[in-house]
Amino acid sequence: MNSIIDDCSLASAGAARMHWFRERMPIVAGVNRMFNEQQTFKGKTVAVCMHIEPKTGYWIEGLLAGGAAHVYLVGCLGTTKKDTAAYLASLDNITVLGKEGDSYDDHKRYLRLVMAQPVDLFLDNGASLILAHHELNPGWSPIGANEETRSGKLLIEKNQAEPAYPVIVIDDSPLKQILENAVGVGQSVVDGFMRTTSLLVGGKKVLVVGYGYCGSGVAKKFRGLGATTMVYDINPVHQLKAKSDGHLVGELHELIPDADVIITVTGTFNVITEAHIPLFKDKVILCNSGHYGFEISVEEIKKASRSIEQVKEGIERIAFDAKSIYLLHNASPLNLAGADGNPIEIMDLGLGLQSYSAYRIVTGAETLQPGMQPVPQDIDSRISGLFLASLN
Ligand SMILES: NC(=O)c1ccc[n+]([C@@H]2O[C@H](COP(=O)([O-])OP(=O)(O)OC[C@H]3O[C@@H](n4cnc5c(N)ncnc54)[C@H](O)[C@@H]3O)[C@@H](O)[C@H]2O)c1
Known about the structure:
It is built from 15 helices and 15 strands. By secondary structure, it is of the alpha/beta class.
């Protein structure tokens, strides 16, 4: 199957950009070497759904070095880096299905292409592969799967699609929750905001919707740069946590009119909708850092508008009769669409969890239960030790 990417002439630029990342990911480097020595994936077909960017690119090199018969890589929505996609597509034994501007329909089409042949292992993000397999019921099953993120776990539960094969939920690892979600996402989302808008953060009133692991980190980092932070969470316990962490809290309809920037990070859909248009301050900036841009009802908000204009790369002005609002990157995850995603060291840890969990599925699936389960504790301990050593 041929790759579907934006521009294969970007392969050498993509290859050149890999060096900076490879040199700074010692955990993935070590696992990639092990995969290569042991030929862990020899003869196996692996389907991956991940953000296509250099850090995941390096991790995918490990699957190929580990002897995978073929890797099918499907990009996540709105986060594909064209040069990385071109570089990966230039390698042997891989099909890359991901363009920068892919729609949800494109994404679904790629998933159908992947499900057309038996796959041994799913390495999923947002449950795209797991749900496509559930819906299409192709008559074969993988040995097991990893699911990377909170949204994926929530979607599997919501669709009652818990598979009979083992699914290791990387997001249930306390390491991922505490380090990647609470520390890494906050920094990279602020990075994405600054790179996209070129605005000063200090003095802005920033409303963070969703105060879980990611949201608490996002609010903390915005406040660290001088923003006044407001938080809404549907869960009163998380509201209380936000209050005691020093943020302003209230009901969504009370906070929206005051906000200069609204950022969603809930893992659910349609949190900010067209019903909120009358409440928005003129020139409010809307953005999202949850896995799916559907946290903001973009289509409905756009339908209700008078005009839509691209005013800067990644920024659309959506005009109504009495006001305009600005939408960043069509609500794709801001840290990936507007910047390079989570910090390299953090993704070394996160992808290290992915690699060791994949290794466990391939070499010891009989030790795992059917259905969703957290990362085995020994893997958490091992990655903690490696991460600590890499920081010293
Ligand atoms: N951009 C990234 O790099 C990145 C990284 C990790 C996770 N994520 C994504 O970020 C999202 C949040 O992940 P998390 O780990 O913080 O999850 P979490 O479960 O820790 O937090 C989600 C929070 O949102 C709240 N919430 C749910 N529905 C809500 C609603 N309608 N209104 C207000 N609050 C609501 C929940 O009560 C919870 O406090 C998920 O989509 C996850 O996949 C993104």
